[in-house]
Amino acid sequence: MEKETKTASWEEIEPKYRQRIKRLHTLNNVAFWVTLALAVFNVGMLIFRGNSTWAEVAFRGGQYLAMLLVLKLPSVLRMRFKVEVPALLSIVIVLFCFCALVLGDGLDFYGKFPWWDSVLHGFSGVLLSMIALWLIHVIMAGNDKYIYFNKYFLVLFLVMFSLGMGACWEIVEYTYDSLSGTNTQQFMASTTGSIFAAEDVPLCGHAALRDTMTDLILDLVGAFAVAVYGFFRHNRLKEHYAFAVRLMEIYREEMREVKD
After folding, report:
1. For 80-123, what is each residue's pLDDT tens digit?
2. 188: burial class by Cβ within 10 Å (0-12, 13-18, 19+)?
3. What is the domain range of residue 161?
4. 85-107 burial, b for 16+ CB within 10 Å, e for fewer?
5. Contact of 132 with 162, CB cutoff 8 Å
6. How far apart are CA 254 and CA 256, in angstroms?
7. Crossing angle of helices 116-140/234-259, nearest 10°?
8. Does residue 167 form part of some domain?
9. Cβ atoms within 10 Å, residue 159
10. Helix (H, G, I), strand (E, B), or coil: what is residue 83?
């Protein structure tokens, strides 16, 4: 028989929750202006450097634009779909995207630090598992809770979701490289940067699969770490689930009152 968990009331949680949301908005604003300043500086340097191609300028600028869109995503989900993204998840997503888009591609950390891509893919397995937990909160709210309360299914879902999304991302990278002539799958032997020059040499044979398979393995490792945590902390996750359902109900009530 499982030990019952006590879920904190909304009255106890509300002050801390409101304060957390305020801090999240502040973080988003800081990240927005930092990203914009780096975009103007970095893209401007590429344009006036003289030896940059327009494809390189467009690629770097596109990464900064993607980051700005990520920062606006929680607000869109909140206003358009009445779905609240947890503050911790929002912070982790912003941090990951900043490291991948702004530092990785915008400032070419992938080319300067060959290990940067591997670190982010290990992190992405953890992030995707956190997103999977949040999706379960959203999808299962008000529905049959038996599936969520089965910890064996929960572990399987977290791992399969992370691996599935990781595989989809590899397909996106392969397609983008094929259409744009970039090196996001790092199939070049002479550079790990997303942009490569005509003199760079590609990998051959089994070595050409290294980046894709390493990324998927790291996705699996990160997802497995979260799955193990979810297995042993299942009662705590159920408590979070109950609070998330209540939080969405309260938020939707507030939105209806504002609309009326």
Report:
1. 776 777 777 888 888 899 999 889 888 889 989 989 988 898 88
2. middle
3. 108-260
4. bbbeebbbbbebbbebbbbbbbb
5. yes
6. 5
7. 70
8. yes
9. 22
10. coil
